[in-house]
Automatic annotation (TrEMBL):
InterPro entries linked to this entry: MFS, MFS_Cyanate_Porter, MFS_trans_sf
Residue ranges of the TM segments: 31-52, 64-84, 96-111, 117-141, 153-176, 182-202, 233-252, 272-293, 300-319, 325-347, 359-381, 387-408
Protein name (database record): CynX/NimT family MFS transporter
Organism: Microtetraspora fusca
Keywords in alphabetical order: Membrane, Transmembrane, Transmembrane helix
Residues covered by region (Disordered): 1-22
């Protein structure tokens, strides 16, 4: 039986390369930069759901097309995530994240221009930019905080969830206040992306000289050829857990306001319901890190946070008048499971490079599953004239997620311990 490496041994096992530079910025600036980037990884997506009806009325898109619009960034995640590790290693993870934030601001701005073509193009660019942050931020956390992966993951995930919730809550009020429909409520999120890029540039101070110095050394070549992460059973278990929890999240983010308005709830109230769903996730995301502790085995935690989603969907079916209660329960589950999923990416890998590869795989396949969710929900609602089948679908996905975490949560690694460890 192999023993888990300590934080020190994990760090020393990872060679310094041009893609693995820590920079000279103050630790507080480095952490602030990570948190600001995390805050930009969801508003471009969650600001869309509350104004989908406005977008449809303005552009003429039907329910299925609107579902596809919501899924487009997720398809970009799926398509690009496996390839992010390459540029991150070649040019440096920090540099790639910086340009991703600049591109995200541009994509958000373009998406709000008049004309349906700009809407689709901007959504694709925004999705591609977010994919970079999705993959590289967990690996940077693993590299910079090897002994506190769960705790730091909980903090940056809570920031991500908090900004996502804020974007949902203010989308309809901004659209109403500006008198320009939905466009300004989406465009405003280009500003935080530019701010994140500026602070991230401060984080990078000194990385160029360090990268140059690291690049002068001959690269370390492993004596044993490692198997690809795609051939690891542990990697697939983490990937499916990531995919299932992402699917339930994006189904609710895209369609919860529409589901509620179909029941006669005012649009602004439905938008705040979505805010409530995500705001609860902020607290639960932080709280679950206490439950997780420093343990390697996270099966019990994974089950504990997955079951409430099943209960919430059952409640929405059988007691719809208590929607706020079920939304809170769903938010507790969703906010906790994303922390567990992202933490497992770091906990199931030994090095920065392994973490980046597993992050790319988990988010590629995971978001491909998630992208199918909004589209399938739109078709189900169109075909049946009811949102009940969608609620049943979410409950089924949550049940599958509960089973998968019994495997993904075990104390296992994607790659065996090196022979000289």
């Amino acid at each position: 039986m192999t023993t888990r490496p300590t934080a020190a041994s994990t760090t020393s096992a990872t060679p310094r390369t041009a893609g693995d530079t820590r920079g000279a910025a103050h630790p507080a600036v480095k952490l602030l930069a990570v948190l600001l980037v995390a805050g930009c990884l969801r508003p471009a997506l969650t600001s869309v759901g509350p104004v989908l009806d406005l977008i449809g009325a303005d552009t003429g898109l039907g329910t299925t097309a609107l579902g596809a619009l919501g899924a487009l960034p997720l398809l970009a995640f799926a398509a690009l995530s496996p390839f992010v590790h390459g540029p991150g290693s070649r040019f440096g993870a920090e540099r790639v994240v910086l340009w991703a934030m600049v591109a995200l601001a541009a994509g958000i701005a373009v998406r709000s221009l008049p004309g349906n073509a700009w809407l689709w193009c901007g959504a694709a660019v925004a999705g591609a930019s977010i994919a970079v942050g999705n993959v590289l931020v967990p690996s940077i956390v693993k590299r910079d905080h090897p002994g506190a992966v769960s705790r730091v993951t909980g903090v940056y995930t809570s920031v991500m969830t908090g900004f996502a919730a804020l974007a949902s809550g203010v989308a309809v009020p901004i659209a109403a206040a500006t008198g320009n429909g939905w466009r300004w409520s989406l465009a405003v999120w280009a500003v935080p992306a530019l701010l994140a890029a500026g602070v991230w540039a401060l984080r990078m101070r000194g990385t160029r000289s360090r990268a140059a110095a690291a690049g002068t050394a001959a690269p370390t070549v492993s004596a044993v050829r490692e198997k690809p992460v795609w051939r690891s059973a542990v990697a697939w278990q983490v990937t499916f857990f990531m995919g299932l929890q992402s699917t339930t999240f994006y189904l609710l983010v895209n369609w919860l306001p529409t589901m509620e308005t179909a029941r006669g709830v005012p649009a602004s109230t439905a938008g705040w319901y979505l805010f409530l769903f995500q705001a609860v996730g902020i607290v639960s995301g932080l709280a679950v890190t206490v439950v997780m502790g420093a343990r390697a085995d996270q099966r019990a935690t994974g089950v504990l946070v997955s079951v409430p989603m099943v209960a919430a969907m059952a409640g929405m079916l059988w007691a719809p008048g208590w929607s706020p209660v079920w939304i809170v329960l769903a938010g507790i589950s969703s906010g906790s499971t994303i922390v567990v999923a992202l933490a497992l990416i770091g906990l199931r890998t030994r090095t920065f490079a392994h973490t980046a590869k597993l992050s790319g795989m988990a988010q590629s396949v995971g978001y491909l599953l998630a992208a199918a969710g909004p589209i399938a929900a739109g078709r189900l609602a169109d075909g049946t004239g009811s949102w009940t089948p969608v609620i049943v679908l979410i409950a089924g996905l949550a049940l599958a997620q509960t089973y998968v975490v019994l495997w993904a949560g075990r104390d296992r690694y994607t790659h065996p311990e090196p022979a000289n460890a």
